[in-house]
Amino acid sequence: QVQLVESGGGSVQTGESLRLSCTASGSPINRYCMGWFRQAPGKEREGVGIIDSVGDAAFPDSVQGRFTISRDNDKNTLYLQMNNLKPEDTAMYYCAATLETHLRSMCVRSLAQGQSDSWGQGTQVTVSS
Q1: Which residue from 17, 24, 44, 124 has the fewest beta carbons nearer than 10 Å?
Q2: Contacts by 7-13 with C-beta closer than 8 Å and gap 24+?
Q3: Bridge partners of 24?
């Protein structure tokens, strides 16, 4: 179905910002709920932002107020704006997409549990103090 490619990662200092992009191909994303996840060595994969097809979004407490997820369906692109970065944000960041076949809430619930139809290759974010 849809193929995803992340970009925008890099090395920054504490307090700086980065914007990650996820470009999709093979299918328009207007019918997908999408999200960003991260995983550091020795830790479980963690969702850091989920957005449904109409733009409603949710974030965990660990990034609330610092991260913003958005989408541009015309450009077939998902974004993650990360502000006030901290060393604990260091991880590989992945983009994910799941088709909304019936209800948006069902898609969001599945994605929140880490279940996704498509995953990108990931982009590394490193935050130093």
Answers
A1: 44
A2: 7/123, 8/123, 9/93, 9/123, 9/124, 9/125, 10/124, 10/125, 10/126, 11/126, 11/127, 11/128, 12/85, 12/125, 12/126, 12/127, 12/128, 13/127, 13/128, 13/129
A3: 4
